[in-house]
Amino acid sequence: MAKESKPTPNQRLLELIRRSGPGAAAGERSVGSPAGSPNGTGEANPFWGRFSRPKVVHVGVDISQAQLTCVKIRGQDAGFEVLGTAIAPVPEGVAPGSPEFVALLRRTLSDLCGPGPLPRIWAAAQSARANLQFVTIPKVPSRQVDNAVFWTAKKDMAFDEGSVIFDFERRGEVAEKGTTRIGAMAYTAPREAVAVVRADFARAGFPLAGLTLEPFAHQNFFRRRIVPGAGGATANLHVGQNWSRLEIFSNGNLMFMRVIKTSMSGMEQAVQEALETALAVSPPPPSDRGMSLAPGLDGAAVLDLDASGTEDSGLVLELDPEPAAAQSSAPPGPFDPADTPGPAPAAGPAVTPAHAREVFESILYGCDHLDDCHPGQGLGPEEVMAMLEPVASRLVRQVEMTLKHYRESLGYEAVSHLTVSGLLGASRLFVAYIGEQAGLPCSPLDPMAGRVLESPAMGGPPIPGSVYTQALGLAFSDPDVTPNALFTYREKATVNASRRLEQWSLVSLAVVLAAMAIFSVSAASTRRTLARERDGLAGELAALGGTSDMATLTRMSGELQDRRKALHAYAARNRAVGVWGEALALAPQGVGLGNLTAEFGPPVESARPAAGGAQPAKEAKASARLVIEGMVTGDSRLFDSMLASYVVALENSPLFEDVSVKKSELEALDGGATGLRFVIGLSVPES
């Protein structure tokens, strides 16, 4: 059992702060908090709490064959706060889709989430048929990218669209063989498996906000800069119970993934075989539980990724369950009695898988929890790590071959840093061994390191933060940064089209409103200008002492009309005198006038054009016809020019129009002289 220790003053102060914080007031119990808070003191800041926007609560659910791992957090940055954790063992034979699994899911999430609004829940699709692959397409217009990626991925990944869900994530432009292409991370997930997980959460009363694949959960850490010093190309080795996974990230993006069958179950089997060999339970035949070897092969086998060429870049999760750990043996190891000559030792106590698992956990928690009668009593963590070395070395070689394939065959940037996730990420010895053998700086992928977590069950070992890494990565999921099998590129395209239509509608409405506002301002300005002019005229009228009443204006208008009629009558009476005087004044020297005959007829109606296309208005117009008789005397050679000059003068006069010469003939005068007699007709219009 773990040694009991009294809480330190710092721990008591931290617990007091949690109890008095805003999370406690809302009925939430915070089981982990970052080293610093918004105000840098770890205490609640009233100003920050009053004016800051409340952070949304997220829950990540990691589903495996053995247990459900859940993490509840607030905030999705480096300052996130862990509100609760839960680990629920999954009984043997209970699988997603069964009523027992739904009941377990409902019970676990109800205890974790508690009353109040439902958080945003993300889970990962568990299936051996999931497939991830980085594909590239030629540069095409943006509207053609979706179809180009789909058909390229369908050709390379060979999937049936009716049985799987296909989605991809654009990665922008990439350089490939000297040309610029468009990259995309494409993935498929079985439609049936996704539907089962989605239905289980809905039946449990906790509908999913998103469903993604496990490698994308770790991608969230790199994209949100949660992992310190993760620049450039970084590889993460996730060691699971039945298989391992190597993920390679570049600038926060998942670029490559390979499944490795060496896992913790193989390591536990190696420990059990080593203990059985050391205790001489039975002479063991050579066996390897860490990897499935092809027929005819013995010893350690390494998969050479370069041998298959660059076409073997598909990331297919073909997960074959490892054989049962019972009744198997290991090759001679450091505890092989054959190394020491002598008589065969007597048979000792049987080593069970539970014993092997407890000894295996010694590299995590130490050996203090082993009983005196335990088969592994007296072993140290270094000795247990020596038992694991054959399996761990095979795992390292698989990692090295994958990194070589990624660097040399695919032509990507070399990996400069290695992280380890999963339960073994909490083992200092295992992480150091992986880094030393791979020749790379190696560190655990444990964003929850340094946080106070829930106490373990009575008598159980403490729970390391690396156990929650994958569930925590799911809690960091968001539709903007994480691929979502429930919301694929097709749904995104539909939403984007609707959003663009809505944006254009809003822009058009804004333009119309702006135009109306401009017209309104202009009309208001014009009205104010006219009002000022009216006030100015009214002031001038008041200064002149006049009034603007209708009766006075009517009287003045009548007086003006009477005066105009009188002037017209006077002009009509003296019209003949004025016309004769004008005709005499225009006559040049040598042109004499004799008789003037005037004929004044009644007014003649004439049409006057009207504005706006209306019917022309008719007005009465009086006219007079004049006949002028005269004689041109002097030099006979100038008769025609003198008469023409007189006619031009008459035409240019505003009193006459329609000037025409009716008669012009030579006539003998007294004394032997000669003259040109003429008759001119013209009209006098009414002014």
Automatic annotation (TrEMBL):
Residues 331-346 have a biased composition (Pro residues). Residues 1-47, 322-350 are annotated as: Disordered. InterPro entries: FtsA/MreB. This is Fimbrial assembly family protein. It comes from Solidesulfovibrio carbinoliphilus subsp. oakridgensis.
